[in-house]
């Protein structure tokens, strides 16, 4: 399914003979299908919630939407940056307990924003998206709510809001951002290398996010491990998120590369091998033996960036640009 | 297409690297600005120390206001040095002692109600009220509040970054107190009697609060003194940069790009709007956030144009990054210059509105469209500026040196590869 604008852009590129290497493949084979899957899964979650907003009913659709998010969550530029969508969809890490504080505040006030999608879109990002919903659906003492409980209405509002954002993302990508990247002669992407660099930065930043945050947060230090900081641990998705993210990043690497990338393939394989037989929520960070296995996974993920630079960055003549996690 | 095609010959003509001498001069200007900025920060911190001593010796409403005024003045030069943090590991490793934020202030003194952060067990410790306590299973004797206690025991205790025991923001809390107005008008309103002696003392333990303020201010002065030394003629920070001017130019741009995008536009500004949380204000006790953001922006402009106006009115200037870039690619240089000016206009708008009474925490309120537009205007300008910085990196042929955010700067090799 290609829009007319996209087709026109491609035709233009073909005529000019200037298609940025790797970008059309990455956009058409990786970004756009991933966005569609996330939009579809979020729409299904929203429909489920409109029919029955109780935790047990929502959990399967929640997992499907989160799985789909991991296919695109590393693409933190362009449409993801607008309106703070990346934060509103997945507010994590949350070292200050903002998700709990913000959802508790809505519940305590029985805030009327849950009845109005437009008003709910203005609510703090910590009370929206996948992590606010995780709290309602999985946290002990939270998930036992009944049909007419405020929490049920909140779960429904979060699901509907998520579906709206996912749909807008998919549309923005298809209508505007994908053609702009492929054309690479516009205000956003002035030259092919800028489009390449945006995707390449997403790849390297995504790898670093898995190593430094998804694993680094629960690992903490040897003396002070932090199992409670594992991502989505109530939903028991911590390890699953790393695996799915690595698979998605490998997919992006393959699409972005011009040639075969044997070192990169091997590095991903080695890292994915290290995910087998780990516990689902990295509770093992407190056990010296188990901790070592989690550290090995972290090291192997970090080790992917070398081959990526050699086999993808260097041939394209690019290195990573600035990314949203440059702050502290 | 036309734009690129017209730019291309220019690029080819000037692609030969500017002579090494030029780069060394540009880097020297950068180091001169850093030296002056940290020296000004030190002088203003000493003035703050004088004012806090006066408050402690003779507590009064006037003495508290004088100390607050000294703190506000001290922020002006310091915020302009934040651009040196990213890219220079020596600054980044040190910075947490001076400007750490956000903080769980209940570690230090009394706070309203009980809002300990979810996972920080020390968020309600209140050292000022508790001379003895247990920390990570260890008995701590805090009967004497000293710089050593604050720096070595309390700061980042239990490996939690929100346990900020020292630096500008700890002092800010000790002077202003918590801002209990949420997203409504008003800053923290600590009574001067929190430092009064005898029966006039409010908030309890006024003597210990005074000890804490004295110790934290002493630490700030000594930390800034150390950093100012690193940028003198024989200082380590300057020597590292001068040893490899090519890499140093990349450091200059890395500092600007990382501060513009991940730190200021993202962490400090956009996140606050998206969370609607007044504690996401950078200077949340004093309501001075508009100035913090403004002077961060000005620091980047200083580095680009090789100009810094000292607190005594003298101008430090020399061969600049702008000159170097203009020789390599005049279009990119002009564009980055225009982007930085746009950022300053946007940050100036926030400052203008805040100084007229529309404070930064009010801008963060849920559904406050005007506030959101003001902040997001600056965020968008900072993001645009970042794209131009990336283009500058490419134009100067530095793109194989690699970028690094603060997290990866623990290994200097990542930058100086």
TrEMBL record, chain B:
Residues 1-20 form the signal peptide. Keywords: Signal. It is found in: Cell envelope. InterPro entries: Imelysin-like, Imelysin_sf. It comes from the Bacteria. Transmembrane segments: none annotated. GO terms for cellular component: cell envelope. Residues 34-388 form the Imelysin-like domain. This is Peptidase.
């Amino acid at each position: 399914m290609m829009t007319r604008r996209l087709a026109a852009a491609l035709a233009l590129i073909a005529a000019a003979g200037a298609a940025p290497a790797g970008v059309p493949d990455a956009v058409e084979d990786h970004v756009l299908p991933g966005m569609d899957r996330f939009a579809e899964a979020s729409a299904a979650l929203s429909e489920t919630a409109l029919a029955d907003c109780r935790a047990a009913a929502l959990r399967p659709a929640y997992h499907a939407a989160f799985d789909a998010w991991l296919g695109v969550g590393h693409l933190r530029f362009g449409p993801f940056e607008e309106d703070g969508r990346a934060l509103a969809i997945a507010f994590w890490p949350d070292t200050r307990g903002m998700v709990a504080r913000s959802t508790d505040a809505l519940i305590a006030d029985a805030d009327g924003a849950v009845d109005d999608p437009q008003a709910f879109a203005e609510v703090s990002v910590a009370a929206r998206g996948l992590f606010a919903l995780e709290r309602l659906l999985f946290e002990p003492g939270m998930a036992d709510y009944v049909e007419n409980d405020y929490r049920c209405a909140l779960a429904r509002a979060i699901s509907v809001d998520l579906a709206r954002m996912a749909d807008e993302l998919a549309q923005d990508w298809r209508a505007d951002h994908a053609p702009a990247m492929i054309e690479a002669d516009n205000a956003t992407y002035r030259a092919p290398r800028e489009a390449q660099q945006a995707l390449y930065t997403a790849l390297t930043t995504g790898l670093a996010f898995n190593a430094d945050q998804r694993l680094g947060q629960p690992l903490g230090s040897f003396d002070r491990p932090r199992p409670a900081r594992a991502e989505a641990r109530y939903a028991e998705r911590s390890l699953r998120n790393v695996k799915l993210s690595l698979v998605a990043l490998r997919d992006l690497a393959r699409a972005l590369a011009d040639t075969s990338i044997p070192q990169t393939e091997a590095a991903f394989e080695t890292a994915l091998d290290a995910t087998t037989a780990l516990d689902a929520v990295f509770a093992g960070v407190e056990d010296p033996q188990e901790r070592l296995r989690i550290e090995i996974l972290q090291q192997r993920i970090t080790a992917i960036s070398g081959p990526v630079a050699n086999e993808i960055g260097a041939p394209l003549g690019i290195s990573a640009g600035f990314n949203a996690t440059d702050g502290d | 297409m036309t734009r690129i095609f017209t730019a291309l010959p220019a690029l080819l003509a000037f692609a030969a690297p500017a002579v090494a001498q030029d780069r060394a001069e540009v880097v020297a200007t950068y180091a001169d600005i850093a030296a002056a900025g940290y020296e000004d920060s030190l002088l203003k911190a000493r003035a703050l120390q004088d004012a806090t001593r006066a408050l402690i010796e003779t507590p009064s409403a006037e003495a508290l206001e004088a100390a607050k005024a000294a703190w506000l003045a001290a922020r002006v030069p310091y915020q302009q040095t934040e651009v040196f943090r990213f890219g220079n590991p020596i600054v980044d490793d040190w910075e947490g002692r001076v400007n750490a934020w956000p903080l769980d202030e209940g570690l230090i003194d009394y706070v309203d109600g009980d809002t300990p952060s979810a996972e920080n067990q020390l968020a309600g410790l209140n050292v000022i009220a508790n001379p003895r306590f247990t920390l990570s299973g260890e008995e701590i004797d805090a009967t004497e509040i000293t710089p050593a206690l604050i720096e070595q025991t309390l700061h980042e205790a239990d490996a939690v970054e929100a346990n900020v025991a020292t630096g500008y923001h700890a002092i800010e809390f000790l002077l202003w107190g918590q801002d209990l107005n949420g997203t409504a008008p008003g800053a923290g309103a600590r009574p001067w009697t929190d430092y009064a002696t005898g029966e006039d003392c409010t908030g309890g333990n006024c003597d210990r609060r005074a000890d804490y303020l004295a110790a934290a201010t002493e630490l700030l002065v000594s930390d800034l003194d150390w950093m100012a030394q690193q940028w003198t003629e024989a200082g380590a920070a300057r020597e590292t940069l001068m040893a490899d001017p090519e890499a140093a130019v990349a450091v200059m741009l890395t500092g600007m790009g990382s501060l513009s995008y991940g730190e200021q536009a993202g962490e400090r500004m956009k996140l606050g709007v998206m969370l609607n949380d007044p504690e996401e204000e950078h200077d949340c006790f004093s309501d001075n956030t508009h100035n913090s953001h403004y002077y961060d922006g000005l620091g980047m402009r200083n580095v680009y144009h090789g100009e810094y106006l000292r607190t005594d009115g003298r101008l430090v200037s020399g061969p600049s990054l702008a000159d170097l870039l203009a020789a390599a690619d005049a279009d990119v240089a002009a564009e980055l210059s225009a982007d930085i000016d746009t950022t300053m206009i946007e940050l100036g708008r926030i400052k203008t509105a805040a100084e007229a009474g529309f404070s930064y925490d009010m801008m963060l309120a849920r559904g406050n469209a005007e506030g959101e537009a003001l902040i997001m205007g600056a965020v968008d300008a900072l993001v645009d500026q970042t794209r131009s910085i990336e283009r500058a990196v490419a134009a100067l042929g530095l793109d194989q040196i690699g970028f690094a955010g603060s997290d990866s700067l623990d290994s200097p090799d990542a930058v100086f590869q």
